[in-house]
Amino acid sequence: MSEHDFKGIELLPATGAIKQLFILLHGVGGEPSDLLPLAEALGAAFPQAALLLPEGLSPFDGGDSGRQWFSVDGVTDDNRAARVAAALPALHALVKQAQARFTVMQPDTALAGFSQGAIMALEYAIAHDGCVGRVLAFSGRFATLPDKAPEFTTLHLLHGKEDRIVPVDHAYAAYERFSQHQGDATLDVASSVAHEIHEALVDRAVYRLQTCIPLRTWKHALNSA
To answer: Which of 63, 44, 42, 64 lies closest to 53, judged by CA?
Structure first.
């Protein structure tokens, strides 16, 4: 993939070197512009960041002008994982190309997603541990709960308690699984929030990015001491 193959929205620093990279994945049937409020909040907090909002890999099954990362036509709990796995190579190529283009290392890269985009981001963290430093999962879930936790990627789970599309139980289950495997994860649940990227969750995401020191950093410091 060359930079000319990128389809979506790019928000780059007005001046100065690029120090961080954020890649934001929209939900099923959505489009890159859906994530502009999140991108603007991240850009305000990290003014030297490049923000890429790519469009989904294929047209939305439901028609209109929306896109999707994998087909939801006939999707079930039994076939969802295979569909996600089939889409991951293209996402991995996008991440690696962006990192090379902007000369940004893996720890300084964050992958964020909403709904289906969050599914992709979470599964990416398991399949390609360490290829991004952080994952922000808004209203997401795992296709299948992993039997391990990423060692080199910090996961931030952000969910609305009133979500009826992807129930918050998925976030609780994922966080519990990471805790069992000593994974590096945070969980923020907003009351009275449904299936949306609510301002309260955006604020928490920025807070987590600015204040959360990765568990691996603590372990390294302790081992060095």
So the answer is: 42
Annotated domain spans of the chain: 3-224
> Catalytic residue at 163?
yes
Going residue by residue through the chain (225 aa), what tens digit of pLDDT does each one get?
444 578 899 999 989 999 999 999 999 999 999 999 999 999 999 999 999 999 999 999 987 789 999 999 999 989 999 999 999 999 999 999 999 999 999 999 999 999 999 999 999 999 999 999 999 999 999 999 999 999 999 999 999 999 999 999 999 999 999 999 989 999 999 999 999 999 999 999 999 999 987 766 655 555 554
Fold classification of 3-224 is Rossmann fold (3.40.50)
Going 202 to 206 to 209 to 212, the CA torsion angle's sign is: negative
Is 181 among the residues known to form the active site?
Answer: no
| Catalytic option among 163, 170, 184, 198 | 163
Reply yes or no on whether 108 is catalytic.
Answer: no
